[in-house]
Amino acid sequence: MRFLKHIKLRLLLKTIIDRRDPQKTRYSLDFLLLWALSVFFFRAESLNDIQDSFNALALDRRKALWNFFGLPEGSPLPHRQTVTNALALLDPNAINAMLFQLFRWAIKSKIFYNHQHVLGSTFGLACDGCVVHHYEHPHSVHDQGENTCPYCLSRTHNKGTPNEKTYWLHTFVNLAVILPNGVQLPLYVYPLNAEQLQGQEDASDEHHKQECELQAAKEILPLILKEFPKLPFVLLADSLYANEPLMELCKKLGLQFLIVRQENALKKLAKRCDALEKMEPYESYQSQQTKTLKNGGKIITTLSWFNDEYVGDQKVHVIRFLEEEYDAQGKRIKFYKTEWLSSQKVSKHNCFSLVKIARQRADHEDLHNTLKNRGFNGSHDYARSNANAALVWKLLMFAAFWIFELFSCSIAAQESRGSSSWRKFARNLLIDLIRERWEDISSSPWLCKEKVQFRWDFSLH
Q1: Domains of the chain, with CATH numbers?
Q2: Which of 132, 173, 138 is nearest to 152 (CA)?
Q3: pLDDT in tens, 199-255
Q4: Per-residue pLDDT averaged across 135-151, rounded?
Q5: Rounded to an integer, what distance in angstroms lies between the CA atom of residue 205 and that of residue 289?
Q6: Bigger pLDDT: 240 or 460?
Q7: Which of 21, 263, 342, 355 has the fewest CB atoms within 10 Å around its CB?
Q8: Coil, helix or strand at residue 257
Q9: What string of DSSP letters covers 278-345?
Q10: CA 13 – CA 31 distance, rounded (Å)
Q11: 242 with 311: CB under 8 angstroms?
């Protein structure tokens, strides 16, 4: 409760435009939005779950809820459909604007600046797509049975054969700020519109994903850089972005990048680097680090780089990465290798720092895993029949993740969690809210103090 007050969440929610008829509204929009966010704060996993938890409380036990939501004592709580009906009228862009505002608040509060010794001075900006729904049949139709959801991407496999099959996807492309030690803060969530991908219904899954993500990148990257023109972003992307148009866009925007190159992509560039690697002068373009393990083994990391290469007309600098682990007897037990295309020239002075930033991209995939499998229930239909409400519910899920992610970096949250998982800790917060007496909750030091200074530890995340 104190953390939500600290980030001024309620004031932020009050800035979102309410499109409901004032004559027919019982609850304020900021309250209904907080109710919706609470589904994800507490990892309730469904509207029924949190509704049942609230309804099970006798009136004399609801004091904590009234105070949490800022309601007058004795107020009735809304039905979940009342919440969804309000969300159905919202402009989805307002939730992305809220993500911008949250990030801007963190910058203004100097949270990142005061922890540069851990977080570094650049912001990794990871871009990746995720499928949040898979429908065998259209989920929103008009009287003739035709699909009316603008976000359903039609996919057809085995077209023109007896095994032809059509299904529909909801796909989001999310850009998130990725910080060291796995901290992930969603910055913009872009829902793909079916009109943008007309003619791609029977494309391969890989090509379809590439088209989705490239469409989103063209729309979102200029918008983010316009909002935060002075921040030192570095685009972290997978091999789908290893192409000339994306690199040209980054150059136009003045955006640095570190993009994975897979083994079967950009083969001419790979052959060129293979040939250069065998030449004697390039032996100096290599650096190595060794880390000794407690079991007597070691990890050897070797980097090679090739500056001033080209993808089409776009200049890039290639970093080759090899990590080998040896046991105590000197036997290699596993290895991993990959490559990145860098917009920055590589040298012995910056090669390992660039790789450290590039490897943070893997944390973005974990963000989507958390949303689907760690209590947010990202694949659940929170509003199946109304396309706009369904979209707003999903965007609020990302906003709730942002808030809880930063909360988890506070020393107060880390100490309160103990050895529990963050998912269990979030559930326990709800249990405490509905089981504990308000008098006991309100007498805690965190709520008694007029001002509270949150301290942060990003190394323990």
Answers
A1: 2-92+390-460 (no CATH), 122-373 (3.90.350)
A2: 138
A3: 565 556 566 666 777 888 888 999 999 999 999 999 999 888 899 999 999 999 999
A4: 78
A5: 38
A6: 240
A7: 21
A8: strand
A9: TSGGGGGSEEEEEEE-TTS-EEEEEEEEEEEEEETTEEEEEEEEEEEEE-TTS-EEEEEEEEEEESS-
A10: 8
A11: yes
